[in-house]
Amino acid sequence: MAYRFVLEVPESVAQEVNTAVGTVPDAQVLVMRNSHGLGFNDPFVNLSIAAHSLAVVERIYQWMLEYGQPWPDVRLVMHDGRRVSFAKANVSLIIAAIRRDQPWVDHTMPQIGVHEPKPWLSAAVEVQPEVPTLYLDDPESLQRRFETAPKVPVHNLAPAEQYYDEVLDLHVVARARRREDGTFEVIEGYYDPKMARLHGEEADVVFLENGPLQINLERVPRGYPLPYAANPIHLHTTATPDHIADVRGRILVFGNDVLESEPGTLRFVDPYNVIWTITPAVAIEAPAPAALQG
After folding, report:
1. Between β-strands 274-280 and 233-239, what pairing exists: parallel, antiparallel or unpaired?
2. For residue 103, what is the DSSP state?
3. Cβ–Cβ under 8 Å, residues 216 and 161
4. Considering Cα of 192, then 194, then 197, then 202, what sign does the dihedral take?
5. Distance of alpha carbon 180 from alpha carbon 147, whole angstroms
6. Is 266 helix (H, G, I), strand (E, B) or coil?
7. Residue 210 in contact with residue 243, Cβ under 8 Å?
8. What is the Cα–Cα distance from 60 to 66, expressed in whole angstroms?
9. pTM of the full predicted structure?
10. Which of 20, 145, 193, 224 could staple 63 via S-S, CB 3.0–4.6 A?
């Protein structure tokens, strides 16, 4: 078959997704096995799918709509290990990701029928990401946070947000634009980075945190060089031993440079010129939850 790709789905819905794929005439699940690359205890299953066309993508979204909210955490696993969340994309974006990830298909398979319109879900019923709960909405609080938390300069905010969410469980708590006088204007509600870029309304700063650990992503104009490979930012944090093991597995999937990986200590360089040192958290009364501690 033309396309072969891997879905990563929660174990609790793996059989349902397998059944949904089986209803598509030109697609089938070849292998269903425990996922790999996220650690030994992750609750996900990998489904290796072969398909003559990508109509199976539409069927998976239809199943998600039937399942209802909260949307199941279904992901497309790329050849380089990156994950693309179905709940954060739509039919067209997932299809484009598969085709970009397998460019040889367009050059080696007869493109019969590609001119015919495909019955993708209409924009009105495509799965849309939920509006995140951003609880930092006071410009003065954001200003203090911006001045105290470490700043990571990046050209594109969205990939950096996704990286820190997937690797270090750092979640977006606020986005803001900078006014001419230097103060912040909070961006409320749903934020689409692609549309914001088209309309010249991109965020200037994204505030991330996981418990006490806080960092700020600061957008640098794309024409300005970033100081990568020079003057790295050094950050130290703590985590439970289990979570350190999880992070170690994630950075290996992303291909980050590991500087030290001894028992109890993990040092690595992320793609944004930050050297992270993670050491075990010391539990005083009870073991800390599996989240990074600042």
Report:
1. parallel
2. T
3. no
4. positive
5. 17
6. strand
7. no
8. 10
9. 0.52
10. 20
| Cis upstream peptide for 110 (omega within 30°) | no
- Tokens at 152, concatenated: 């990571």
Q: Using the predicted structure, report yes or no on whether residue 187 has a pLDDT greater than 90.
A: no
Retrieve residue 288's tokens.
């800390």
pLDDT exceeds cutoff 90 at 109: no
**Which tokens is 283 given?**
């539990």
Rounded Cα distance between 236 and 264, Å, is 13
Name the token pair of 122. 């209409």
**DSSP H or E stretch at residue 40:** none
Helix axes 91-101, 55-67, angle to 10 degrees: 140
What are the tokens at 86?
Answer: 């179905």
As a whole number of Å, the end-to-end CA separation of the chain is 49
Which two three-digit tokens encode residue 116? 């015919």
The two three-digit tokens of residue 213, written as one number: 């650990």
> C-alpha angle 228/233/238, rounded to 5°?
135
pLDDT for the residue numbered 115: 41
Read off the tokens for 77. Answer: 């696993």
Q: What angle do CA 79, 85, 83 make, to 5 degrees?
A: 25
Is residue 76 within 8 A of residue 87, CB to CB? The reply is no
